[in-house]
Write a structure and sequence with these properties.
Layout: H1 7-76, H2 84-95, E1 102-107, E2 119-124, E3 130-132, H3 148-154, E4 162-163, E5 167-168, E6 175-185, E7 188-198, H4 199-206, E8 216-220, E9 226-229, H5 231-239, H6 255-262, H7 272-281, H8 287-297, E10 309-318, E11 323-332, E12 337-344, H9 345-348, H10 350-395, H11 414-490, H12 495-523, E13 530-533, H13 534-544, H14 546-551, E14 554-561, E15 565-568, H15 570-591, E16 596-605, E17 608-615, H16 645-655, E18 658-664, E19 669-675, H17 677-685
Parallel strand pairs: 14-16
Antiparallel strand pairs: 1-2, 1-7, 2-3, 4-6, 5-6, 6-7, 8-9, 8-12, 10-11, 11-12, 13-15, 16-17, 17-19, 18-19
Helix pairs in contact: 1-2, 1-10, 7-8, 11-12, 13-15, 15-16
């Protein structure tokens, strides 16, 4: 039995498969639960990490909008421009402006009251206060009208504010965001109040509470330009030598994050006339920018569209963190700002992963223990009884009556039923074996009777042949005695006469003795099997049947006599040939054939070794041909055939490792005896005599 066929191995394999399926199922369930925990934990962690930041940003935003509104209100109430400088500084001091870098009050040139003073600019001093900046407006009286913040504010209602995109200053090294609102008095547009916030300082003051070295944060304007970058993101961009101020210029590795950002692009209808006017009046506003501003100005104040939109996403490979991450996005519809925070997934799942690992370890240990317990339990109730039964079967001991002992088993379940059925099968097999032995004995007895009948039939024919062959010598002896008496009476008997007479008598007696010896040898059992030439058998049979063949006018012709040596019983093989010739003789007489011939060919060529015995007795009926070698089958009339001749010929052929078959030819039947070359080759390998062996041993005659 192969190792893999063992029930133990199969049982272990079964438990391993069950354990594996159980573990995979449990791991799948735990993974789903862990993913649910991930979503919940991610939401909590993001809220915890960003709540203060977003609130601080909102508060700073509202505060700055209050300051610019206060500046616009102060400017609208001015009656004397000489008091404007003092009023602006007082407003800034009263409202606080720690995040403001610079700003100004910008009036319409067409207003007569402000013909000599179109604007008032201010900037932050080193001490933290503010000072009026005359240089910013000298010689540039109308340049601010072309700026984005001014042109947009002209089309806004009182109290509305506008946050510009990120833009660089004249040096191209410092970036600002401008907050503006229109100055309106008694329904008339007077100008624009603006505050400039330096991007880097703005970020430090707003997001100073972001102290996570292994997380990143970025704030983008509506054109995806960086407003704020956390330290981790700054380091990443510095290492990768990134010079641009736009997120859109990052490599293709950021596609997954880019999709989250670009999904918030503003779409919808807009005032085409207003967009065209904005792009024409300000060189800072392109056609697409004009469409966005027109769309934004159409948005109703205080609508749901101004609420911050928060979304949590899972990134398979975050290029900044170089691992799976949770990316939270916050979208400000009224300013088109986007805040993106990236948190490593492991941090979110640190606590749940620890519990998850503990549960997995416990499941593995429990599964192993359950597998071992189940295996030993099934081994005791299933495998051990089977091994005990196999041991009894292997022992194969017999009882007093020389019968196999019945199996014993204490199990009363399916195994016990199997043992009971095996015992019943054993009893049935023993009974069947007894019946088979009886049938074999009967068959052997019947075969012996058939052989005896065949021998008796052949003996009768041989007795008739011997009688025919002795008749001529006996007649000659009778004639010689008559001649001897007559010659003695005439006195012609002398010594020479006696010698000639003796020689003639001796020839007749020798012929009779030879015939008798052949007859006795034919029916005497051989002492073992020997090698003999097939042609010797043919000669012997033809000698015995010579007179019978002459009596029935049958001419026997040897067409080919190649040398074939076979191993077996000479006398038995004589019966095979004699039965074929005897059947041919009966057919000749039955059908009253006039010209009777039997052709014998002994052939040894490339096609094999074979003996052909063919006659011209008219052939065998086709419906009879398949049955002629069956026992007790005969086509002869009752009393003329026993039906055992050809059956015995087939048995003799099989004993000599040969086959016999019959087929019809043009005018008769042909019996073909073919000898098995493979058997002879095997005998040669084993050093035993074989069919072509030269110098075979002499046949022992009885």
């Amino acid at each position: 039995m192969r190792f893999l066929d063992s029930v133990k191995v199969k049982l272990i394999g079964f438990f391993l498969i069950v354990s594996a399926v159980f573990l995979i199922t449990m791991l799948s369930v735990l993974t789903i639960l862990n993913e649910d925990a991930l979503i919940s934990n991610a939401s909590k962690e993001v809220n915890l990490a960003t709540a203060k930041i977003i609130n601080n940003l909102q508060n700073k935003k509202y505060r700055l909008e209050e300051i610019v509104d206060a500046l616009a209100a102060s400017a609208a109430g001015l009656s004397d421009t000489n008091e404007a400088d003092k009023a602006i500084l007082q407003t800034l001091k009263a409202n606080g402006g720690s995040m403001v870098e610079r700003g100004g009050i910008w009036f319409e040139p067409s207003l007569s009251d402000y013909e000599n003073n179109y604007g008032i600019a201010f900037h932050k001093t080193k001490e933290g206060g503010f000072a009026i900046e005359k240089k910013r407006i000298e010689g540039t009286s109308t340049s601010y009208q072309n700026m984005e913040f001014y042109q947009v504010a002209k089309h806004m209602e009182k109290g509305d504010v506008y946050w510009s995109k990120v833009y660089p200053d004249a040096s191209g090294e410092i970036y600002y965001v401008t907050l503006s609102t229109p100055i309106i008095a008694e329904g008339n547009f007077l100008g624009v109040a603006s505050l400039d916030l330096r991007v880097k300082e703005h970020g430090e003051k707003v997001f100073q509470s972001f102290r996570f070295p292994d997380r990143y944060l970025m704030m983008l304007d509506r054109q995806n330009r960086f407003i704020i970058k956390s330290e981790l993101l700054e380091n990443y961009l510095r290492i990768h030598d990134f010079k641009s101020d736009s997120f859109n210029d990052l490599s293709s590795d950021f596609k997954s994050i880019g999709k989250l950002i670009n999904k918030y692009e503003t779409k919808g209808d807009y005032n085409e006339t207003l967009a065209l006017l904005l792009s024409r009046e300000s060189s800072q506003i392109g056609s697409e920018e004009a469409q966005y501003i027109a769309r934004m100005l159409e948005r109703p104040a205080g609508s749901d569209s101004n609420k911050i939109i928060e979304e949590i996403n899972f990134i398979k490979h975050d290029p900044i963190l170089d691992q799976e991450s949770i990316v939270a996005t916050f979208y400000f519809p009224n300013t088109e700002w986007k805040i993106i925070i990236g948190i490593p997934k492991d941090q979110i799942l640190s606590e749940s992963n620890e519990i998850y690992d503990q549960i997995i370890d416990a499941l593995v240990y429990l599964t192993m223990i359950a597998t071992l317990i189940g295996y030993f339990l099934l081994k005791s109730v299933f495998i051990n009884p089977i091994e005990e039964i196999n041991a009894q079967l292997k022992d194969g001991s017999l009882d007093e009556d020389n019968h196999f002992k019945l199996l014993k088993c204490s199990d009363r379940g399916e195994i016990g039923m199997l043992v009971d059925n095996l015992n019943l099968r054993t009893i049935a097999l023993e009974r069947s074996q007894l019946r088979e032995n009886e049938e074999i004995n009967k068959r052997m007895t019947n075969e012996k009777l058939l052989v005896q009948q065949s021998k008796m039939a052949a003996m009768g024919e041989m007795m008739d042949a011997v009688a025919h062959q002795w008749q001529q010598p006996l007649n000659a002896l009778s004639m010689y005695t008559q001649i001897l008496r007559s010659d003695f009476a005439d006195g012609t008997v002398d010594q020479q006469y006696i010698d000639e007479f003796f020689e003639n008598i001796h020839v007749q007696i020798r012929h009779m003795t030879t015939t008798l010896d052949e007859f006795r040898t034919f029916f005497r059992p051989s002492k073992g099997n020997h090698d003999f030439e097939l042609m010797e058998i043919v000669d012997s049979v033809l000698f015995l049947t010579r007179d019978d063949l002459m009596k029935n006018s049958i001419v026997v012709t040897i067409l080919q006599e190649d040398k074939i040596v076979i191993h077996g019983s000479r006398n038995e093989f004589k019966h095979l040939l004699l039965n074929i010739i005897s059947n041919a003789k009966d057919e000749f007489n039955e059908k009253n054939i006039q010209k009777r011939t039997i052709d014998i060919s002994i052939i040894n060529d490339d096609k094999g070794k074979r003996m052909l015995v063919c006659d011209n007795a008219g052939g065998i009926p086709e419906h009879v041909l398949p049955n002629i070698f069956n026992a007790n089958f005969t086509t002869k009339s009752e009393g003329k055939g026993t039906g055992i001749g050809l059956y015995m010929s087939m048995q003799i052929a099989n004993k000599h490792h040969a086959t016999i078959r019959a087929e019809n030819i043009d005018n008769g039947a042909c019996f073909i005896v073919e000898f098995d070359q493979k058997i002879n080759a095997e005998r040669q390998k084993q050093g035993m005599p074989y069919a072509d062996q030269q110098g075979s041993e002499e046949t022992t005659q009885g």
